[in-house]
């Protein structure tokens, strides 16, 4: 898959408004993002092309995006019409249109109202369902030798198929997971096969596909403290065409196994795991 690359413009673009007098804008815009079931799209990544400016939706799906100062933009301030992208890894990409003049947003134009807010809520539609289950989902720390079955079920929700990549895995299994404490946010990476370099690429359709493994607490290092965890499966999705700079803005190591992988926004179900004293 080849993602198109966007670069900063070398100078000002000719105004798309001609001589029309349109209400001037400022450096900030705001709006909200939701999933197609009405739930908040928490952590959805909002990114403006050309400016390479990004932000994330909060727990309520609200976001505020601020442009860099005009003086620091090519030509002392970029003018033109641009796409505002809304991204979650297993959702269809959505966009809105905004315009700028001399490095600031133009309000009451394109998809912005006179107050600098998007005229409509942005809706993201998950195309791949990801559900993680552990059995048992509650284990005493003293039972470190108890076998725990972890299963991740994938199924397309929109469209016919989706391509999913399981890095560092043995064919037919899940390669790794990340335990994230719901109390402290601390993360622990666990690989089923340490140092594995193989990967599996599968085509997922409407028939559920399951990948997973069995593990024991004593195998996880460092030792997991009592508490509640979100267990996040390590997988990648071959998405529709996405600007490469959008992915780079998320971080250079978000697709690698490690804490930064959690910066890649997903819609997931399940994965709750508790360790008791």
Describe the overall structure.
- The protein has 277 residues and is mostly beta strands.
- The chain is built from one helix and 20 strands.
- Helix content is 3%, strand content 39%.
- The strands form five sheets. Strands 3-2-5-6-7 form a five-stranded antiparallel β-sheet, with helices on one face. Strands 10-20-17-13-14 form a five-stranded mixed β-sheet, with no helix packed on it.
- Strand 5 and strand 6 (94-101) form a beta hairpin.
- The longest helix has 7 residues, at 244-250.
Structural topology:
Elements: E1 28-35, E2 45-48, E3 53-56, E4 62-66, E5 80-87, E6 94-101, E7 104-105, E8 122-124, E9 128-135, E10 138-140, E11 148-156, E12 162-167, E13 176-181, E14 187-191, E15 199-204, E16 209-215, E17 227-233, E18 236-238, H1 244-250, E19 269-270, E20 272-276
Parallel strand pairs: 1-8, 9-19, 10-20
Antiparallel strand pairs: 1-4, 2-3, 2-5, 5-6, 6-7, 9-11, 11-16, 12-15, 12-18, 13-14, 13-17, 17-20
- In what range is the share of β-strand residues? 35-45%
Outline the low-pLDDT stretches. Answer: 1-24
Strand element count? 20
CATH topology grouping of the largest domain: Immunoglobulin-like
Spatial arrangement of strands, main beta sheet = 3-2-5-6-7
Succession of helices and strands? EEEEEEEEEEEEEEEEEEHEE
Query: What is the rounded distance between the termini?
Result: 47 Å
Q: How much helix, percentage-wise, in residues?
A: under 10%
- CATH architecture identity of the largest domain: Sandwich
Q: Structural class of the helix and strand makeup?
A: mainly beta
Mean of all residue-level pLDDT scores: 89
Shape type: elongated
Largest beta-sheet details? 5 strands, antiparallel
DSSP summary: helix tally: 1
